[in-house]
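Dear colleague,

Following up on yesterday's call, I've attached the two folding results inline so they're easy to grep. Please treat them as preliminary; we haven't cross-checked anything against experimental data yet. The first protein's sequence and structure tokens come first.
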Amino acid sequence: MAIELGAAVRVSPLIRFGRWSFLGLGVLYGAYHQNRLAKREVGIRAIEAEKKAIRDAKAAEEKKRSLEEEARAIAELSGPVKK
């Protein structure tokens, strides 16, 4: 079942110019918006990198403290038994 299409309609040059203008403006706006978001993301990543360094330092300190406590507990358990 084929649908018959009518004859092609000639589009006004003003409408054609408007379409292409809006397409160009949309591309330019998209590039501007992407650039703005990329700059914001760079700032966010810098802040996250600083927070990660602090978080890693705290985790390393906690791990060190935990290992020291574990070594002390093992030393107490494996030491000579007092009678």
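Below is the second protein, in the same order (sequence, then structure):
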Amino acid sequence: MASVDVSETLSTTNKDMTFAEKQAERMKRLRSLHSARNEARSHNHQEVVAEEARNKLPPNYEAKRRQAEWLLEDQKKREEAAKEGKEYDRVKLLNISATEAERLERKKKKKNPDQGFSTYEQATVRQYNRLVKNMPAADMEQYEKQKQKYGDAFYGGPNVIIHGMHEDRKDAIDKMVDDLEGQIAKRAKYSRRRIHNDDADIDYINERNAKFNKKLERFYGEHTSEIKQNLERGTAI
């Protein structure tokens, strides 16, 4: 079977075409290249805009986005389980390995909800949330009665004089006093001032060394009391 040379076939075809047909073919190819160039330029512009938008995002944006998607998916599955009358936490544990379930349980136990002091603002928010949580349930019936009784003065606008209109109930005052006394007692428990004992032995050279010695005494005092007494009496072997 004889092979056909492609270049010879194209040259033969071009020779058979008229000048107008050749010109039309060239214009067609030019328009095709022009369209491809415009399309590439549009794609490049879109990529530049998208990259600039990504650079303006915070560094942890992707992690937060994945976390948000996971939370939405988890909430959706939880709602579906509730509709079917199933306990979602048990269903979720059935789909993970025992090792992973044990790791999640250890992480849950290790997690400390009280992160300690970070800022005064956060400390104020935590204190406010604790106080609100300990408040009794609102008496909506009494709330509506007071709202109808005082009218516009109930909310205390800028042009309303409310002084002397409200009368505090005795049980409300007692609750406030009990709550304040509880806060004072709790605060005194954790921030009591250590009284200096002048009769105590001076076994330290500075404040830091005194704290260290107190720690040693707290953990090892019962085990080393006899040795310490022998050293003081001079009867240690």
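For the second protein, one point worth flagging: DSSP finds nine helices and no strands in the chain.

Best wishes,
A.L.
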